[in-house]
């Protein structure tokens, strides 16, 4: 194995260098384009692959071939440039449910040197207006229904067909389907785009604070795509089912960019619903899925009914992320679906896919480790730092994970204070996650650093208790939060979603956990709830539950 710093003495097993307390990726280095003036769209379009069908609409069965995709990208970019006047640096908002045409819009916008930003379709008009005020988009791509959430000052391209309604309250400057049919005027004079120019600005999930615009450059996104080419994780004849929102980094980078670069076929669900997902696997013979741990639990608990109703024989792989996946859940899933592999991963909006993932056979052939996020991705460096002392630590020591590499974002839009708090002067991204890396170079995520519960001086990771709770046959989902206490400071409180018609009691839950953990980790209060609030990527919104739990104090 060759490391980036060949003069350093790096342990080939763990990837750890004692001389600078840094972990290095054991994977092949990235092959990045030497030309600094190349946009990510041009980079992706230059890649050779043998794919034919790019996207399939799960609801209608409509297909978009790779040749049609690139023809549409050229036509939309030409229309944006000549008819609307979009130029380098302009911000373009996408407010839309999942669609096979979102990749067309993204690739078109970035080819002009303009900046893509997205908004969650579930956000209120007030929440969207705050984002618009922050990033000041020149144009928005949206549907007729969602256009009602936009301010009148925003010009709109409609992504759905139909009669224009006079009550939309926005100025419509184009219809996407018509733009895709219009022949380009000819050779377009492109603005010069540098790899350091901003390509995308996605807003962080805001699990621990206000949402912020994460600035990602063309170089960051090119590194993201190159990483997947280096890992070669694409299966032969892979058909991926897109179950996550394309407004989120995983959906946008993973499906609008990675799959196009690899030549993978993607079946697009407009929105996630368990039985719609399973029906799409059956109908389109999908080979791989992306999901969060609670969905795995639902598939475990409903395995008998699912297998009786749906043919899942095509399914070979499940990629899981958004939250730590316990050994018990992993083993439970593999027991019920023995022909399906589970790959895990770890990344942040700020890392543009850089972090860790599992699934490389050469790394894992002699090993079988559950609960790990995998090994460091190509060209990523990591440090484990004591959050109290700042001391950089080594193998099997737990601390805050810091990451460094070519895909790490440039910081937060118009927020220098937050940028300096998160990314230091040497380019290290402080993830805010409590992790350790073991002797084989595998990353284990313990919990969010800011979400640790402080009970009488002890630190209690909520994720550990949540992983135990969802192993109970009468629990569908659970979240653990800190509850204030005068004597202890805080103690663990659980919000639990029970199986329908279950009479599982608070005492039974407390007893179930107390038999499996040290006394200071015991859950001391339980509340039952219909659903756990989560971000679109599956992260638990503990701050919402804390607000609910403490509202009557």
Automatic annotation (TrEMBL):
Its cofactor is Mg(2+). It comes from the Eukaryota. GO terms for cellular component: peroxisome. Residues 464-539 form the AMP-binding enzyme C-terminal domain. PANTHER family: 4-COUMARATE--COA LIGASE-LIKE 3-RELATED (PTHR24096:SF339), LONG-CHAIN-FATTY-ACID--COA LIGASE (PTHR24096). It holds the Pfam family AMP-binding_C. This is Uncharacterized protein. It comes from Capsella rubella.
């Amino acid at each position: 194995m060759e490391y980036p710093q060949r003069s350093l003495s790096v342990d080939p097993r763990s990837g750890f260098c004692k001389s600078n307390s840094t972990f290095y990726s054991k994977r092949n280095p990235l092959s990045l384009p030497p030309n600094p003036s190349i946009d990510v769209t041009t980079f992706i379009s230059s890649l050779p692959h043998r794919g034919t069908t790019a996207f399939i609409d799960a609801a209608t069965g409509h297909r978009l071939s790779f040749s049609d995709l690139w023809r549409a990208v050229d036509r939309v970019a030409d229309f944006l440039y000549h008819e609307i006047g979009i130029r380098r640096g302009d911000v373009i908002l996408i407010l839309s449910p999942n669609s096979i045409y979102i990749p067309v819009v993204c690739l078109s916008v970035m080819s002009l040197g303009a900046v893509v930003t997205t908004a969650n379709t579930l956000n209120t008009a007030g929440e969207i207006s705050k984002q618009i005020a922050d990033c000041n988009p020149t144009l928005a791509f949206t549907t007729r229904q969602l256009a009602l959430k936009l301010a009148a000052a925003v010009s709109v391209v409609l992504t759905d067909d139909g009669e224009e309604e006079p009550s939309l309250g926005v100025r419509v400057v184009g219809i996407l389907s018509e733009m895709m049919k219009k022949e380009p005027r000819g050779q377009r004079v492109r603005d010069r785009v540098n790899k350091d120019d901003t390509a995308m600005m996605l807003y962080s999930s805001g699990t621990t604070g206000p949402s912020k615009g994460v600035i990602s450059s063309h170089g960051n996104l090119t590194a993201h795509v190159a990483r997947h080419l280096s890992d070669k994780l694409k299966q032969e004849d892979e058909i991926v089912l897109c179950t996550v929102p394309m407004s989120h980094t995983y959906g946008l980078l993973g499906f609008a960019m990675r799959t196009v670069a690899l030549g993978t076929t993607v079946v697009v669900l407009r929105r996630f619903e368990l039985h719609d997902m399973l029906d799409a696997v059956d109908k389109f013979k999908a080979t791989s899925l992306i999901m969060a741990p609670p969905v795995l639990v639902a598939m475990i608990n409903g395995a008998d009914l699912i297998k009786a109703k749906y043919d899942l024989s095509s399914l070979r792989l499940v990629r899981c992320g958004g939250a730590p996946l316990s050994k018990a859940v992993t083993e439970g899933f593999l027991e019920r679906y023995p022909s399906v592999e589970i790959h895990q991963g770890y990344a942040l909006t700020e890392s543009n896919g850089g972090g860790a993932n599992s699934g490389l056979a050469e790394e894992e052939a002699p090993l079988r480790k559950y609960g790990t996020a995998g090994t460091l991705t190509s060209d990523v460096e990591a440090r484990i730092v004591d959050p109290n002392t700042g001391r950089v630590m080594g193998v099997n020591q737990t601390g805050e994970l810091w990451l460094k590499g070519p895909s790490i974002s440039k910081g937060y839009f118009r927020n220098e204070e937050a940028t300096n708090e998160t990314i230091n002067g040497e380019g290290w991204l402080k993830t805010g996650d409590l992790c350790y890396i073991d002797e084989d170079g595998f990353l284990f995520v313990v919990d969010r650093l800011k979400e640790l519960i402080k009970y009488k001086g002890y630190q209690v990771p909520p994720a550990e208790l949540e992983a135990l709770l969802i192993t109970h046959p009468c629990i569908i989902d659970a979240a653990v939060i800190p509850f204030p206490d005068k004597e202890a400071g805080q103690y663990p409180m659980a919000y639990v979603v029970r199986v329908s018609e279950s009479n599982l009691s608070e005492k039974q839950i407390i007893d179930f956990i107390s038999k499996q953990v040290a006394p200071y980790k015991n859950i001391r209060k339980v509340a039952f709830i219909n659903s756990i609030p989560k971000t679109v990527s599956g992260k638990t919104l503990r701050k919402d539950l804390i607000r609910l739990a403490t509202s009557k104090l």
